[in-house]
Write a structure and sequence with these properties.
Elements: H1 2-33, H2 41-65, H3 77-100, H4 110-123
Helix pairs in contact: 1-2, 1-4, 2-3, 3-4
């Protein structure tokens, strides 16, 4: 079970980063073209994948606390969790601002999304 959750967490990390980059580029293009699409599918998919990543990470932390995971950590757990929760909060904030911008295109949704993606890249273990 631990191996399955760890593998899913690892695979989903790449999905979050690549789909997030695609969503970020797509939102930037839409903002540049002055198009309003509150239900932009790549952005919604990024938020869903990021939520799944958090859930898998919390399951891994729970399994570690229960003693089922004995492998050494590749990352400082406190720093990793803090940065990822901050990144997820920024992505959700940007997504909410994007969905609420029905009358005009909102540049203000782009910076929380970009900062959330950047934090997720920084907090991901690369070793």
């Amino acid at each position: 079970m631990v191996t399955v959750v760890l593998t899913l967490h690892s695979i989903n990390r790449w999905l979050v980063l690549f789909v997030g980059l695609a969503a970020l580029v797509g939102v930037a293009i839409l903002v540049r073209r002055q198009e309003v699409r509150p239900n932009f599918l790549p952005l919604r998919l990024w938020v869903i994948l990021f939520d799944l990543q958090l859930a898998l990470g919390l399951v891994l932390i729970l399994l570690r606390r229960m003693g089922w995971v004995t492998t050494p950590l590749r990352v400082n757990l406190g720093q990793h969790v803090l940065l990822m929760v901050l990144a997820l909060g920024l992505v959700h904030w940007g997504h909410i601002r994007w969905k609420r911008s029905t009358d005009e295109v909102c540049w203000c949704a782009l910076w929380p999304l970009a900062l959330g993606w950047l934090l997720s890249v920084v907090a991901a273990p690369w070793g």
